[in-house]
């Protein structure tokens, strides 16, 4: 940009816009608001009460420690209730509420497959929803023999819209997702929407249920509240992962970039079926940080910190904390502890040059593939979170899940000290 000029639109306190032109090395502003350039922005450090110009060196950082600002629109019709126009600050996560730009009309119902205990709740929910909404389900769910044999449910099946994973794109038509099952059902729902994710309402009908706060017994009341709007939501951040394959045919060929994967829980790189140690290099913003020798490494979101990472000894992080956790799996080192890095960094994992075997990578336990020498895994924070609808609020729900699902800090209470006796010796 040296030798060129840039145009900066400044908004002063009285609301008018002034345009300035200045050599690219310097920025001139007279405002108290942020100045935006293409893919980044500059915000004045302090708010001064008078209007005059500052000459500042033009400095563009290659990386930002803050993660990307999450998208605030979820699917075609859902969004976060905006702040009042008089409030000019980033919204507090505790005040984030779900609202609808238009009344929702299409709902996707996802249930755990091959679980007969969920057949009756699924039927009951579909009967309730088809009266007011267009209901989408997977084709393999409708083709379940239990549903086919139910003559009373046949008329309901004819009203359901079906789709097939990997063949039909429903990302632009779903307004709300309702999950019946456990945490794996919600992870599967996340994998269906690699971009913007509609609001997710998860009912606890599985084994663990850390991410499923709603009880099915009161589904009519809870669904009605969500359809009305103003429900509390937790924006569960996801990771954006891309596997870049090395050119193996000709030296002049370019690297082959794979598709981006949106990951809600974790990216796991392990040694696979090999009996050798996994030996991978970990880079942060292009710099080698360390080598991981052991069974592998877990890169997880705050949501995933209570999953595989917790079993590997990591700390548990609230989903509203903007961070990425790196956890080794059985490291061959007594000093390699899990670390938490800012959400804005870019992580890259490659095989070490002296690695004796390949590695394997999986995304939320799916799409497992082998990593060869020269391949690399690039991991950044995604701007498309999963808007998970809260049963109570985002703080209470999380601690309730810790207590009920993981039995966090559950132990037998210590008895208090016995009170000294007030009796005194009697004189003879």
Descriptors:
Tumour Suppressor Smad4; 428 residues; 6-stranded antiparallel beta sheet; 8 helices; 14% helix; 7-stranded antiparallel beta sheet; Rossmann fold; alpha+beta
Rough shape?
globular
Beta-strand proportion = 25-35%
The CATH homologous superfamily of the largest domain is called Probable inorganic polyphosphate/atp-NAD kinase, domain 1
Main beta sheet strand tally, sense and closure = 7 strands, antiparallel
Task: Return the CATH architecture of the largest domain.
Answer: 3-Layer(aba) Sandwich
Distance between the termini: 104 Å
Mind telling me the CATH class of the largest domain? Alpha Beta
How many separate structural domains?
Answer: 3
- Residues in helices, as a percent range: 10-25%
| CATH fold-level name of the largest domain | Rossmann fold
Are there runs of 5+ residues with pLDDT below 50, and where? Answer: 1-60
The overall strand count is 29
Number of helices: 8
Label the structural class: alpha+beta
- Calculate Rg over CA atoms: 27 Å
Mean pLDDT: 82
């Amino acid at each position: 940009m040296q030798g060129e000029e840039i145009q900066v639109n400044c908004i002063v306190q009285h609301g008018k816009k002034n345009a300035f032109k200045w050599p690219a090395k310097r920025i001139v502003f007279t405002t108290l608001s942020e100045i935006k350039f293409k893919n980044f922005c500059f915000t004045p450090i302090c708010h001064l009460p008078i209007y005059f110009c500052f000459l500042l060196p033009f400095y563009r950082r290659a990386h930002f420690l803050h993660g990307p600002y999450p998208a605030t629109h979820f699917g075609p019709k859902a969004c976060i209730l905006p702040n009042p126009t008089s409030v000019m600050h980033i919204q507090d996560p505790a005040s984030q509420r779900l609202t609808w730009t238009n009344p929702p009309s299409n709902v996707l119902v996802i249930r755990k497959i091959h679980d007969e205990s969920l057949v009756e709740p699924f039927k009951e929910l579909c009967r309730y929803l088809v009266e007011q909404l267009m209901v989408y389900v997977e084709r393999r769910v409708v083709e379940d023999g239990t549903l086919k044999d139910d003559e009373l449910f046949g008329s309901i099946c004819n009203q359901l819209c079906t789709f097939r994973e990997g063949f039909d794109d429903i990302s632009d038509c779903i307004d709300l997702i309702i999950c019946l099952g456990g945490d794996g059902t919600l992870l599967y729902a996340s994998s269906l929407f690699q971009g913007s994710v509609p609001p997710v309402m998860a009912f606890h009908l599985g084994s663990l249920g850390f991410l499923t706060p709603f009880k099915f017994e009161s589904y009519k009341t809870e669904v009605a509240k969500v359809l009305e709007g103003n429900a509390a939501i937790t924006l569960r951040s996801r990771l954006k992962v891309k596997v870049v394959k090395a050119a193996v045919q000709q030296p002049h060929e370019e690297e082959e970039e794979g598709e981006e994967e949106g990951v809600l829980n974790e990216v796991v790189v392990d040694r696979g079926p090999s009996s050798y140690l996994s030996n991978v290099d970990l880079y942060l913003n292009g710099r080698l940080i360390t080598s991981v020798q052991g069974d592998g490494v877990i890169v997880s979101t705050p949501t995933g910190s209570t999953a595989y990472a917790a079993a590997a000894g990591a700390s548990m992080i609230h989903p509203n904390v903007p961070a990425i956790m790196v956890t080794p799996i059985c490291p061959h080192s007594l000093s390699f502890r899990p670390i938490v890095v800012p959400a804005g960094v870019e992580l890259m994992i490659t095989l070490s040059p002296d690695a004796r075997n390949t590695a394997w990578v999986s995304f939320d336990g799916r799409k497992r593939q082998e990593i060869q020498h020269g391949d690399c895994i690039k991991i950044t924070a995604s701007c498309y979170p999963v808007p998970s609808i809260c049963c109570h609020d985002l703080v209470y729900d999380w601690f309730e899940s810790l207590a009920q699902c993981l039995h966090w800090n559950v132990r037998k209470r210590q008895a208090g000290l016995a009170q000294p006796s007030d009796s005194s010796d009697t004189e003879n």
